[in-house]
Model the fold of this input.
Amino acid sequence: MIGFVIRRLISAVLVLFVISVAVVALFTYGPSDPAQAMCPEPKCTAERQDAIRDALNLDAPIQVQYAEYMSGIVNGRQIAFGSEAYDCDAPCFGVSFIYRVNVWDDIKDRIGPTVSVAVGAGATILLIGVPIGMFAARRRGSAADKAVIGATLVIESIPYYLFVLLAFLYLAAGAGIFPQEGYHPLTDSPLKWAWGLLLPWLALGLVNSSKYARFTRGSMIEAFNQDYVRTARSKGLAESRIVNKHALRAAVVPIVTIFGIDFGSLLTGTIFTELIFGIPGLGLRALNAVGQSDLPVIEATTLISALIIVITNLLVDLFYSVLDPRVRLG
Amino acid sequence: MTVSEVLIQGPDPEVNPEPSESGEIAGRSPMRIAMDRLLSDKVAMICAGIVLLFVLIAIFAPLLCKLFGVEVRAGDPVTDTDSFNYPVIGPPNYGFTWEAPLGLEPNSGNDLLAEWFYGARTSLLVASIATIVSTVVGVVLGLIAGYSRGWGDRVVTFVTDLFLTLPFLLVAIAVSPMLVERWRDNPSMLDDASLIALIVILSVFGWMGLARLIRGEVISLREREFIEAAHVLGMPTHRILFKELLPNLVAPIVVSFSLSLPATIAAEATLAYLGVGVTGRPSWGQTILRAQNWFDEYPLFLYAPIIGIVVLVFALNLLGDAIRDAFDPKSFR
Done:
C-alpha cells in the first residue's frame, strides 16, 4: 500500500512538473509577445516594449525562467515592468498586466466558488445517476427501465452548456424560481451558499448524471449475475441488503474510477457554469483574463486548475484501493 | 487480409447470409457482416439519413442560400434594423416572410437562415477534420505504445495521462488567442488562423481515449500467432503495425470515430460560444451567444442553432451506438 502511494505521488508530481514547465514555456516562448500583450503598440513605443522585455528577462533560457517563477511561488520576488517595480509576496504567481497586483491576491478568493460548484455538481451527479441506475438495474427489461435509458440518451445529446444556459434562462432569469446572483461564501451563510448554487448544481449534475445512470445500470446487472449475489440470495438475505451491501459494493468501484477521470471535464463544465451564472470563480477570471490578454492570470489559473485535477485523481486512486476489497496494492 | 480475420468470422446470429449464386454459403469479412447488420437497423438508417442531410446542407450551403434568395453576412444595420435595433421584417415584430424564412438578426440585420446553413458548414468542417486528425494521432500513438515494450510504452502512457490532466477548456481559451495573435496584423489570415487554432485544439485534446483503447488491443493482439509468424518471417516493424495489426483494429477505430464526432461537434459549439477560434465565420455557437439575451422576445433566433446542434449530435450518437452494436459480436438487437 505504501509503495503504491509513493509511486502514485511521484507520478503526480512528475505530471505537475511537466505541466508547469509547459505553461511557463508557453508564456515565454508562446506565439504571443508578453510585452505586446501588456502594453500594445500605439500606447507604448517600441523602445518601451524592449525595456519591458528586458525587465521581464524574456531572453533568459527556460530553466532560468522556470526557476524564477517557482522561487517566486515559494519566496516571492520583485517584478519590474520597465521602470516600475512591484513587490510580489509569496506565493507569487506573477503580477497581473492589467491590475498590477499579485495574481495570487486576485485569484485566491476565486478557488472557493469553483471548488464549491465542482464538488456540489459532482455530488449531484452521483446522487442522481447512481440511484437511477440502480432503479433501472433492478427492473431491467421493464418499461420503466427502457424509459430511463431512453431519457439518458436524449439528455446526453444536449451539449451540457446548452443545458446550463437554458436552465439559467428559464428557471433563473425568466421565471425567477431560482436566484440569479449566485454566490455567497460558505462561511458567510451555508444556507445562502447552497440556495444560490442549487440550480448550477442541478443543471450541471443532471446533464452529466445520464452517463452514470447507464454505467451504474450495466455494472449492477453484471454484479447481479455473480456467484456471491446468488449465494446471498440463497442464504435468504433481504433484497435491499443484497442490492445495497453486496451488489453495489462491487458496482461502485468502476463508477469511482470513471468519476475521477471525469473530474477534469467537470471542471470544464464549471467554467461554463460560472460564466452563465456569473459565479466569481477561477473559470470566469480566466475567461476575463483571456479577453484582456492578461497572461500571468491565464498562467496561474491553468496551473491551479491542473493542480486541482491532479489532487483529485490522486485522491480517487487512493480511495479506489480502499474501496475495492480485491485491490490490495503492496 | 490476415489469418485472424478468417478466424474471427463466425456465424452471424441475426442476418442470414445472402445465398450466393451457386447456393453455397459465401465467406464474408467482419466489416461486411457489420455493414449488413447496420443496414438492417432502422434507427441507424434514419439517423444516417439525418446526418447525410446535414452534410448536404453543409456542402451546398451557398447553393441553398441562392435557392432561398438569402445572402450570408449581408445585413446592413441601417436599412435592415429599425432605430431600436429590431429587424424591419420577419419576427419578432412582424410575421413570417419568404424574404427571410428564419428572420433577420437584431443589431446586424444578417439573415439567420444563411447564418444557419453556413453554421452547419463550420461545425461539420471543424469537427470532421479534428476528429480525423485525433483519430490518426490516437491510432499511431496507441500502436506504438502497445507494440513497443518498455520505454516507448511508458512515454506514450505518461503523455496520455498528462493530456488527460490538463484542464481542456482553460488551455483552449488560453492558447487560441496566442495562436491567433500571430496573424493579428493580417485580417484575411486571421480568419483561417482562428479556424486552424480551433481544429488544432480540438485534435490535441481528442486522441487520448482512442490511444488507450488501441494500446490495450495491441497488447493482446501482439501475442497472437499471426503476429509472431510475421515477426519470424522478418517482416519490418512498420509493416507488422500497419499491415497486420491495423486491419484487426478497424472495429474499435470506426466505433471510436463515430462516437467522438458528435462529442467534437458539441465541443466546437462550446468553444465558439466562448469566442474561441471563430471570428468571421458564421457558427451555431456564436449565434447562440448573441441570441441568449433575446430568448424571451425572439425565441426562434436562439432555437434554430440549438435545434441544429441537438438534432445533429443526437443522430450521430444513436448512429455511433448502432455502429458499436453492429461491430460487437456479442450484442443481439
Notes: The two ends of chain B are 29 Å apart (CA to CA).
